Amino acid sequence: MNTRTGRVGVGIIGAGVIAAQYLGQLTTFPDVTVHAIGDLRPEAAKARAEEYGVPHHGGVETVLENPEVEIVVNLTIPAAHHAVSSAILAAGKHVWSEKPLTTTREDAADLLRVAEEKGLRIGCAPDTVLGAGVQTSLRTLASGAIGEARSAVARFRSPGPESWHPNPDFLFQVGAGPLYDIGPYYLTALVMAYGPVTSVSAVGSRASATRTIGSGPRTGETFEVEVPTHVNGLLRFASGATGAVEFSFDDPIGRPHVLELTGSTGTIGLPDPNVFDGPTQVAQRGDKDWSEHKAVGAGSSDSRSNRALPPHDLQVGRGLGVLEMARAIRAGRPHRLTGELADHVLDIMISLDEATHTPESVTVASTVAAPALLDEDFDPHAATL
């Protein structure tokens, strides 16, 4: 049972590129305090801590042994997620993990079991689905605007991250690739819209056996590609709806991202689920064009325009899920982006991966209840604790 009150203490393990995005938000939310940053490279943790005014930095133990830290944000590479999250739970702290939760079903089940035994929580990215963009679309769906759910289309096509990421190797290793790196944004949104997936079919391919780094100190260095870099899949939902998904790092110029929900009377076009804001588009049968619904909720342009905040505070980003979990801990209620939700999304992705090796469909054994929508007046920058 949680007996603490006031601001929730947060620690971060992993001081890489993504840490800056989390710290840029978490250090501005009045309901949480970032106490410590740890990394296998203490000098990297020191640099991040100094950049964002975090008082403690060092190795991983700096975070795990800090008594003020209640939630630890695991920003390590996917292959390390299970080991690091296990250490966090062993230290008696709640886990927020970057996606995917783990790289295997067995490791995910282990984390959920240990967390339940210890009375601790697991939350997992992507928290973009809590942003005003996707939440407004989900509220539109719930209102019956397109009738009964029938189908969905999700499409992400890009050249891949090696052109801009200084250390992109891990994004092409087991547990990554476009399916595991990009898939969670779209698949989490789809599960929140249509409920759990029961089976999948898929095909996959790899455009090249190697990639070349295009920026940073390793520019020009090549590395091996271990996973499919293009995956097409079909989803069957327990609700009876179906979905077609495409995740690719093989398109040389990139294409507009697509996420659409079609019902018995119309279609909802969601904003890019990789970001937190953006309009919802709706078209009914017989319409000549989309009608646009402005995003309403956490991080929307309307909510930001009414705030006298410095420029770096004006965009809600990564860390929104950590904040929502922190408030849920203090309130003694379930948080929304649970380990169970992340486990089901992981199961879908592993099943899609397995389906690329067989002409048969693959059963998704796990299931989950879609989380409640975020309140429209959820304000990340309000002090509520």
TrEMBL record:
Chain positions covered by the region annotation Disordered: 281-313
Keywords: NAD, Oxidoreductase
UniProt cross-references to SUPFAM superfamilies, sorted A to Z: Glyceraldehyde-3-phosphate dehydrogenase-like, C-terminal domain, NAD(P)-binding Rossmann-fold domains
Basic and acidic residues bias: start-end ranges: 285-295
Gfo/Idh/MocA-like oxidoreductase N-terminal domain mapped to chain residues: 9-122
An MF annotation (GO) of this entry: oxidoreductase activity
The GFO/IDH/MocA-like oxidoreductase domain, residue ranges: 139-268
Signal sequence interval, chain numbering: none
Any matching Pfam family: GFO_IDH_MocA
Protein name according to UniProt: Oxidoreductase
Organism: Brachybacterium muris UCD-AY4
